[in-house]
Amino acid sequence: MENKREIIHEMYAKKLDNRKKIIRVFLPHDYHTSGKSYQVLYMMDGQNLMLPARNSGYSWNVLPSVDRLYQSGEIDGIIIVGIDSDDTYRIIEYSQSIDKRTIGNRLKDLEIEDVKPQGDLFEDFVVNELKPFIDKTYRTISDKTGIAGSSCGGNISLYFAVDYPDVFKVVGAFSNAIWMVHETLFPKLKSFNFPSDMKIYTDIGRKEGLRYLFGNRKINRILRSKCINSNQVLYFEQKGATHTELFWQDRFYSFIKWAYKSGK
Fold it and tell me: CATH number, domain at 195?
């Protein structure tokens, strides 16, 4: 393996009709010299983690954020694995249920014969295909794994937490589009037995709209009622923030600083 910080792999998700997945692995700056193993954070919309998103013109800016925290001694270094999304299947793969308004307004023009949520199949790909590959290929701490994303990607990150609590110990759910998936997500969270070693971060921008704001406030109330210790949950509302990578990159820094604090 060359001394690169970003390595790209191609995989095919078996249960998702062998759909091609572009996987971007972002390594700690000392990965090639330290000999250490690292915690792994899997992230949705991998194409936007360092490259500008088409709609906003901004990226998550993940490498400068984790480098800054590592160099200041605030985190021990992590491997970030980005999973690219595509316009056709993004909402479907990031959902276990889809609000009828979403199907009518956002998915009606997709060239898909039968629009059905595939969130459970996407989760299966990450847990049973991608994670074993990453743990075999890189020096990972395989039992300390995180998952994160924004909007629909935040939704599916919360599903991962509930469905695979023994796998994912850190969850970052940014600007979650709760209104799209409330039919299944709310009941799952309400019946969820919150493990004592899991940490969940959620947030929202105050200018994202009332349905985003109210849905994320409700998620926070549910999580706080279920957690064992208050420091397991962190919720943040950013004043003046809209639904874009411009604001997620700042909150990503705060999330990493909280979730991966050095010495854990």
Answer: 3.40.50.1820
Domain that holds residue 196: 6-259
Contacts of 221 (CB under 8 A, 6+ apart): none
Secondary structure (DSSP) of 89-119: THHHHT-SS--HHHHHHTSTTSS-SS----H
For residues 100-123, one letter each, b for 16 or more C-beta atoms within 10 angstroms of the residue's C-beta and e for the rest, the string is eebbeeeeeeeeeeeeebbbebbb
Residues of the chain whose pLDDT is less than 70? 1-2, 102-114, 263-264
Model pLDDT, residue 26: 98
Residue that has been written with the tokens 């009941």 in this structure: 187
Q: Is 264 domain-assigned?
A: no
Supply the angle between the helices 210-226 and 182-190 in degrees, to the nearest 10.
Answer: 20
